[in-house]
Amino acid sequence: MTMDPAVAEPEPATRQPVLSLRGISKGFGAVQALTEIDLDVHAGEVVAIVGDNGAGKSTLVKILAGVYSHDTGSVSFDGQPVSIGSPAASRELGIATVFQDLALCDNLDVVSNLFLGREITKGTLDEEEMEKRSWSLLRQLSARIPSVRIAVASLSGGQRQTVAIARSLIGEPRIVILDEPTAALGVAQTAEVLNLIERLRERGLGVILISHNMADVQAVADRVVVLRLGRNNGNFRVPDVSYEEIISAITGATDNVVTRRAEARNTERNAS
Amino acid sequence: MSNTATAGSAAERAADLQDERLFHGEGLTGAVESFVRRVRSGDLGSLPVVIGLIVIWAVFQILNPAFLSADNLVNLSLQCAAIGTISIGIVLVLLLGEIDLSVGSVSGLSAAVLGVTLTQLHWNSVLAVVAAVLAGTVAGIVYGLLFTRFGVPSFVITLAGLLGFLGLQLWVLGPNSSINIPFSTWLVTFAQQMFLPPWAAYALAAIAAIGLFWSDWRRSRRRRAAGLSSGSMSVMLVKSVLLLIALGVSVWYLATDRGVGAMFVFFVLLVVLMNFLLTRTRWGRAVFAVGGSVEAARRAGIKVNRIYISVFVLCSTFAALGGLLAAARLASVGASSGGTDTNLNAIAAAVIGGTSLFGGRGSAWSALLGILVIQSISSGLTLLNLDASIRFMITGAVLLLAVIIDSLSRRSRASHGQA
Q1: Is residue A2 situated within a structural domain?
Q2: Is residue A75 in some structural domain?
Q3: Is B293 within 8 Å of A105 when comparing Cβ atoms?
Q4: What is the 3-state secondary structure (H, E, C) of chain A?
């Protein structure tokens, strides 16, 4: 493990993480995609997972979303060991995943998309109740959607992202995983989504944010977890870390003789 | 009347009208304006087909004054019912973005089952009808399972079904090239001689108009209770009164001849029922979702395979039902039942009526509108004593036109950001 205790000040031990991964490994044939990954997510915390292409971010997300199963290691939710065998199991635990492609139905309006698969019915569809709840949800998120009765196709990229994130909240999740929510968005729309992420944190949700964009990560995340070649390569509190430090953790510039020596010294100091 | 959201502060507006970017009109003018705006942005709905129908009727009336006679229109309505019923099923599969090319064969098979069980095995007529409809249901189950288990494109499965069920139809018929269904059978009476008495037809028209008003009014009340904008009373009233007048005049005009055929009413009721299921139930919402994006529907927890199977079953069942109506109307069943242009007319009707071939867009009403167009052309050309060859060519051209309109409006929606 290359967790660096000097910079990664862990959250107070009294607070129990909502989601906790220990020693997660996953291999695809001859390729070890993830090795001994540890990750904690607390309520009301935004954890950014960063790393180069092939670092294992997507694999980790898919394990949490129940798309893949992990080979070794343990997952606990609220301190209870759990297994995430399927996407449905992941949802039932309270993990909502917003994938990069959003998976919205372009031909349906915003209300239908928000409640897709979870429609409120009173014999027939209760459109009024769903529309009312859509508005109150979007208002809580301060989302700027002009009308919930227009097809999702006519919304901008940021608004579509907003709808996808809002939809993940319908099932009252505890953890929301956002996969590259700001990729392909303009400046203003990115800001909208970042606001939305802060809104999720205010609601006390744990947010896992996958991103390539360091500016976004530094703007909203509380903690940055760096993956490199399928291993933990750093766990920083955002206020204490510089852009350069994150980049060097991502590229592996920190993983050399000098840093390992420093790490050994730190460990010694902590032990004494 | 203001048509932009300048009037009133945000706080006193309904929850869904608070965004200043929204256009919203009030009352009748507002309704008309928003309709014009929708059409301009490529959301044509059923407008092209309604205009098309008016043009077709006008042209044929000019060419042959008998076209709009009550007698011809009554015949027209009866001709619509059988293929129109088949077309309802086609609308469903098109909504999923799939196709069923075998509805003609399935309708022929069901007619053959009816003919043989009724006249040769001497089954009870109700039992024979049930068996014939079930033949279609079974065909749909086979399609649904093949599609969901093996992932074969519906185009190919139903092309195989087109041949296979035609063969089965001929095998069921055996050596008989044609079977006559006795005129005394209730099914034949229902299809040929049963017309609503004028009072019943007027009552039905009134019920439809009142029903429309009642459902609009209830929705408006529920929306107001939920703090949402509610439609204006004047729009609701005008809509229902227009419907009442349109239905009333139609009933009056048809009553100068034989009246409104029971079979046509049956078909329209099926359309209303399917429209209800598509727009007001979770199943209907799932059908549209799967047609829009299968992957999104699957991730939303919709059991996509069940939706596919249910739609293929419904489509084939409607095809069987349509086959029965066609057989009953002709009082005969033969090797050519469900043959020739049944298949293509049913598919053409759904597309002409405005259901998109690309999935996710359409309505049960397009079966009614589309079949009216097709049968009007067919009936008009027959009145002009034109050969079947010309009829096929013109129907083909109209289908092509409908598909072009579908593609163009899709492109227009894309350029208006609503694809």
Answers
A1: no
A2: yes
A3: yes
A4: CCCCCCCCCCCCCCCCCCEEEEEEEEEECCEEEEEEEEEEECCCCEEEEECCCCCCHHHHHHHHHCCCCCCEEEEEECCEEECCCCHHHHHHHCEEEECCCCCCCCCCEHHHHHCCCCCCEECEECHHHHHHHHHHHHHHCCCCCCCCCCEHHHCCHHHHHHHHHHHHHCCCCCEEEEECCCCCCCHHHHHHHHHHHHHHHHCCCEEEEECCCHHHHHHHCCEEEEEECCEEEEEEEHHHCCHHHHHHHHHCCCCCHHHHHHHHHHHHHHHC
Residue range of the domain that includes B155: 66-408
Mutation target to probe the B interface, by most B beta carbons within 10 A, among A116, A131, A140 is A116
Nearest chain B alpha carbon to A107: B292
- CB–CB contact A106 B292 (8 Å): yes
* A167 is a domain residue: yes
CB contact under 8 A, B288 and A112: yes
Q: Which of A117, A145, A147 faces B300 most closely, judged by CB atoms? A: A117
pLDDT tens sequence across A35-48? 888 999 999 999 99
The answer to the question of residue B1 being in a domain is no
Contact B19 A118 (CB under 8 A): no
CATH assignment of the domain containing A84: 3.40.50.300
Q: Least CB-CB distance to A103: which of B15, B227, B296? A: B296
pLDDT tens column, A163-204: 988 888 888 899 999 988 888 777 887 888 898 899 889 988
